[in-house]
Amino acid sequence: MVTTSPTLAQALAQALAQAHTLGLARIDAQLLLLHAIGRPDAGRAWLLAHDTDALPDSAQTAFLALCQRRAAGEPVAYLTGRKEFYGLALEVDARVLDPRPDTETLVDWALQVLQPIAAPRVADLGTGSGAIALALQSQRPEAQVLAVDASHEALEVARANAQRLGLPVRFAQGDWLSGLAEGALFEAIVSNPPYIAADDPHLAALTHEPLHALASGADGLDDLRTITGQALPHLVPGGWLLLEHGWNQAESVLALLSAAGFAEVQSRTDLAGHARCTGGRRPVAG
User: For residues 202 and 196, is the Cβ–Cβ distance under 8 A?
Assistant: First the structure.
């Protein structure tokens, strides 16, 4: 009896079904399959348009191994070595936090407040992969963007992304505002600092990501306190401090900013409708 080899449609259906039994979301499985077949830039629609292509056994094996690692909690970005953020293809690994879509809310807000300024100076504190700084630089080529991180390893990742993307972001190593030169002034300071409480049970599901980029003291606000308490002298009058935080921390961050002397304190919501970012301005007379 003659048997025929399965088509890609059959193999794809089987592979995605197996990924589903492991608990993977369909989009995760599709991104991992594109990576396994060496087509990371093709897009998910490419899989449908080429559903009669043969799926090599080696790709099937690699795909299933990736699915098992994903099922164990490893981020897709670490498995593929890349993550799209604000239209930029970033290279990421376990040295940096996996950039989240919600952080694009912070970029949108920063671009809004900087829109009237001809050549704004911007500092991104705790840059990690460089996602925020590079997104701002890509949208405002004339801006002077400085990316700061305490981690030498994170800065290696961010610098490599900047070089590959051809974006002239500058970098400095330091713990939050200690990485800024004395007297340095900015029209905006932005940051997505750690904001998870040290005993938060959700950290158990994030063990593949760097803990220092996630947790911040007993209530998750230690780094936010540091930044809000030190930022005013580094902002021009009318300059903005914009911060990302946890979905339930807006009220606390609003209070921190108000206590530190910021004006026009307010929040912005993320894609799920949660108050995800909070900021304020240095008073013009302050």
Answer: yes
Among 283, 193, 196, which Cα is nearest to 243's? 193
Backbone angles phi, psi at 191, to 5 degrees: -160, 140
CATH of domain 93-281: 3.40.50.150
Nearest residue to 196 (alpha-carbon basis) of 206, 188, 186, 181:
206
Q: What is the mean pLDDT of residues 84-107?
A: 91
CA distance 139 to 141: 6
Place of tokens 């013009």: 284
Q: How many CB atoms lie within 10 A of CB 211?
A: 12
Residue 254: what residue type?
L
pLDDT, one tens digit per residue, over 119-172 is 999 999 999 999 999 999 999 999 999 999 999 999 999 999 999 999 999 999
Nearest-angstrom CA–CA distance, 282 and 240: 6
pLDDT of 215 higher than 80: no
Please give the backbone phi and psi of residue 74, each rounded to the nearest 5 degrees, phi first: -75, 130
78 close to 208: Cβ distance less than 8 angstroms: yes
| Integer angstrom CA distances of residue 276 from 80, 166, 207, 266 | 27, 30, 23, 11
pTM to 2 decimals? 0.82
Contact 255, 219 (CB under 8 A): no
